[in-house]
Amino acid sequence: xxxxxxxxxxxxxxxxxxxxxxxxxxxxxxxxxxxxxxxxxxxxxxxxxxxxxxxxxxxxxxxxxxxxxxxxxxxxxxxxxxxxxxxxxxxxxxxxxxxxxxxxxxxxxxxxxxxxxxxxxxxxxxxxxxxxxxxxxxxxxxxxxxxxxxxxxxxxxxxxxxxxxxxxxxxxxxxxxxxxxxxxxxxxxxxxxxxxxxxxxxxxxxxxxxxxxxxxxxxxxxxxxxxxxxxxxxxxxxxxxxxxxxxxxxxxxxxxxxxxxxxxxxxxxxxxxxxxxxxxxxxxxxxxxxxxxxxxxxxxxxxxxxxxxxxxxxxxxxxxxxxxxxx
Length: 327
Ligand SMILES: NC(=O)c1ccc[n+]([C@@H]2O[C@H](COP(=O)([O-])OP(=O)(O)OC[C@H]3O[C@@H](n4cnc5c(N)ncnc54)[C@H](OP(=O)(O)O)[C@@H]3O)[C@@H](O)[C@H]2O)c1
Description:
Bound molecules: NADP nicotinamide-adenine-dinucleotide phosphate
Largest sheet: 7 strands, mixed
Structural class: alpha/beta
Helix content: 25-40%
CATH architecture of the largest domain: Alpha-Beta Complex
Radius of gyration: 20 Å
Number of strands: 15
Strand content: 25-35%
Shape: globular
Number of domains: 2
Distance between the termini: 14 Å
Order of helices and strands: EEEHEEEEHHEHEHEHEHEHEHHEHE
């Protein structure tokens, strides 16, 4: 079968494509999925350099989330069947024609959702609903500042916070990105390359600050955003796409009576599977009622994997980029 190959941890430019890879073996608790699309996520740029939380044995195919059709079911799996349209979290192996995924990491995709949309939905929207619902306990009428608001998780945060009845302030680096965030529900925008983040948030909120900060970017923006939170505010630590993990000043948490909250969706879905399942059902309901409208930057062939990962690294992707072995 065709797949992307990472045979050394030397980065994006050394990835290759093969057409005669051996399909992965099925085990009793897993299913084999014929891949229609695989979402491209920021961690894919790290895993091929050995710089992510886990390091698959070489050689491997990157690609952490897929959508497609089940073609084989393990002997111990009863709730899934051949022919079902599904999305699955595989961590790696998704940039391929077939992937084997543990059954407990697979969810049925509603007919109303195209598989290329589902391919980039689970990680970004799943992470974000967990962050806003279980961690921040976001309430209708609260304000949310979203950093990196046109990226994968950022745009999901704009949509989900809006669906939960919050007012969204979107921050990003270009006018095009801010226009996209506005089209997806943001009420106010801030270009954080050109405007002072803290001062602009304060002026947009009559000096009060925001109730929740959604931060997948890190670096210097984290402290600026923390300084722009309201009393009882919550800072959601999602990730560090800027490449810099910030150090937080504890006195700021004290003075604002606010909380910094870690968000680790990968562990949440293992530790709290029932809550995760309810989150996904809520997301699919919102999708079917038109409250969520994921933006697909493009669906590119597997052969474009190097361009795709470079596009993530150079901040030119808006919404989700998907690789497909079907085109
Ligand atoms: N905690 C969790 O469970 C969880 C789950 C999923 C993802 N994440 C993390 O969330 C972060 C974002 O992931 P994603 O897939 O949404 O990424 P993405 O689509 O590439 O979006 C990241 C955004 O960060 C901003 N950014 C600022 N500096 C950047 C830089 N030097 N390089 C790249 N982007 C930069 C960009 O927006 P501007 O150009 O507007 O600044 C970009 O749109 C990653 O750190 C990822 O590991 C965490």
